[in-house]
Each structure stands twice: as structure tokens, then as C-alpha cells.
């Protein structure tokens, strides 16, 4: 019985450690970390004037990037971006272009202030473009 209790406590501690979320302060802006899901290393990534920099394959940007406002439509962040992937410049995909409230993003909404993670993907129908999907 004692071994069972010890094993149970160890497993509970491991579970808690693995599921610990970031302890983040309240914010009045949209704070974003980017996750590189392109399948390659991104270099010199810039997203709506935020210099994200280099982002290795499968990695998350170490710092949050602050946006006073950031729109989304159909789960895609409405951003302007440029970065280098496999030696070629990639720009914003069609799914991520537009300005909320205009005809180019008729179903767009503003994100509430808070903390977000956004996946960076190669656009399905635009091999030289990047998409930014909200997690």
C-alpha cells in the first residue's frame, strides 16, 4: 500500500508539472507567441511590424509580441508578414489578408486582449505564402 501511495504521488506531481501553464500578468493588448509549423526553419520573420526573427522548425517564439489590435477571420489572424523559408521569401497568404470590418474580411472580428499562440503554416494553395492560424 505504501508503494502504491508513493507511485500515485509521483505520477500526480509529474502530471501537474507537465500541465503547468504560464503564470502571465493581466494585459490590455493582444499578446502573441508564434509556433513554426512550416516544416522548415524560418528566418527574419516579421509579422505586422513585430520582428519575430528566426524561428526553428517546430519551435515557439520565446517572447510574446504585443499588438494593440489584431483581427481574425475563420480562425486565421489577419496580418501582414514576410519571412524566409528554404532560402525563398514567403509573404502573407490570402487567408490572412484583410482588415476587420471591410469587404476584404467581412466576417472578421477583433481579438480580445489576452495571450494567444498562433501557428505559422505554409499556405495550402500558395506554396510561397504563410498562413497564421489561431490555436
Summarize this, please?
The protein has 135 residues and is mainly beta. 13% of the residues lie in helices and 41% in strands.
Describe the SSE topology.
Elements lengths: L1 H17 L11 E7 L5 E6 L2 E6 L9 E3 L3 E3 L2 E3 L2 E5 L2 E5 L16 E2 L3 E9 L6 E6 L1
Question: What would you say this structure looks like, in words?
Answer:
This protein has 135 residues and is mainly β. Helices cover 13% and strands 41% of the residues. It has one helix and eleven strands; from the N terminus they run αβββββββββββ. The chain has one helix at 2-18; strands at 30-36, 42-47, 50-55, 65-67, 71-73, 76-78, 81-85, 88-92, 109-110, 114-122, 129-134. The strands form two sheets. An eight-stranded mixed beta sheet has the order 3-2-7-8-11-10-1-4, with no helix packed on it. It has a three-stranded antiparallel beta sheet with strand order 6-5-9, with no helix packed on it. The longest helix is centred in the N-terminal third of the chain and has 17 residues, at 2-18. The model is unreliable at 15-20 (pLDDT under 50).
Helix content: 10-25%
| Uncertain stretches | 15-20
| Rg over alpha carbons | 18 Å
Sheet-strand content, in percent, reads: 35-45%
Instruction: Give a short account of the largest sheet.
Output: 8 strands, mixed
Counted beta strands: 11
Mean pLDDT score? 85
Shape: globular
Give me the secondary-structure category.
mainly beta
Specify the number of helices: 1
List the helices and strands in order.
Answer: HEEEEEEEEEEE
Distance between the termini: 42 Å
Please state how the strands of the largest beta sheet are arranged side by side. Answer: 3-2-7-8-11-10-1-4
Amino acid at each position: 500500500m505504501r508503494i502504491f501511495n508513493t507511485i500515485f504521488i509521483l505520477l500526480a506531481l509529474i502530471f501537474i508539472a507537465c500541465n503547468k501553464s504560464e503564470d502571465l500578468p493581466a494585459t490590455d493588448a493582444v499578446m502573441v507567441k508564434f509556433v513554426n509549423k512550416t516544416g522548415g526553419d524560418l528566418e527574419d520573420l516579421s509579422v505586422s511590424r513585430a520582428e519575430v526573427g528566426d524561428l526553428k522548425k517546430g519551435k515557439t517564439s520565446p517572447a510574446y509580441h504585443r499588438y494593440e489590435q489584431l483581427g481574425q477571420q475563420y480562425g486565421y489572424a489577419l496580418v501582414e508578414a514576410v519571412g524566409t523559408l528554404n532560402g525563398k521569401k514567403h509573404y502573407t497568404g490570402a487567408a490572412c489578408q484583410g482588415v476587420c470590418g471591410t469587404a476584404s474580411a467581412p466576417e472578421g472580428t477583433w481579438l480580445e486582449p489576452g495571450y494567444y499562440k498562433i501557428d505559422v503554416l505554409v499556405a495550402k494553395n500558395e506554396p510561397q505564402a504563410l498562413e497564421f492560424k489561431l490555436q
